[in-house]
């Protein structure tokens, strides 16, 4: 299959039609290149707050609520695009009110047949906890698709190996991200590459890019798209299948061969996924050994 992962820049929107046109262009471009799976980044939906004006877009709490209120229209748009192009789309994540105490960070996953499900972020960053007051959402899910089994670890979630291990049956793990600084981008990228190594699978990282003076939430963003696998048989020796140019908006494309994933899991130079359980008893006890 061919996957397309976005380095996505936010725009100031004066109308809903402008947003529809933008998403149509992005999706049409990727589908036109033969992509069957499209991945948008974390908090890419925050540009929708501009539809309610500068006062709302510039206020953290009001912008969160404004974006959440647009989710039904966003759902309908992405459903139409996925069906029209016969592709899978992981939509940009958004703060969503859904009966929780506080909004959750949710990425919706759209199928070409019209189906839709979602993945909520599990572990909040400091900014989400201390400033946004975004809450952890529902459990991890494994999506069984025509392209294989697919999991989603939203940004910070990708830095936690046990969350990755919970998705050990996934052929692909999608990692939509939003990082302010270069160091944040590399934290998520290192996490994504580590999950690919541990699970002997492919991880697909999308990034928000660009500066937005109108927003308190997503004012500075650094990153690019990347597709990673285990540096082993059937994969590049660096583990990097594809990567974009830092902070340059656009799609990054990669061909992913499910048989290569199956082969490296069965007969790789190393078998991290199979040998995972061997570390557990050895990690239970650490002996303190004085050394002078």
From TrEMBL:
Keywords: Hydrolase
Signal peptide interval: none
An annotated Gene Ontology molecular function: hydrolase activity
Span of domain CN hydrolase: 1-258
Keyword Cytoplasm: no
InterPro entries: C-N_Hydrolase, C-N_Hydrolase_sf
Name of a matching Pfam family: CN_hydrolase
Gene3D superfamilies: Carbon-nitrogen hydrolase
Name of protein: C-N hydrolase family amidase
Segments forming a coiled coil: none
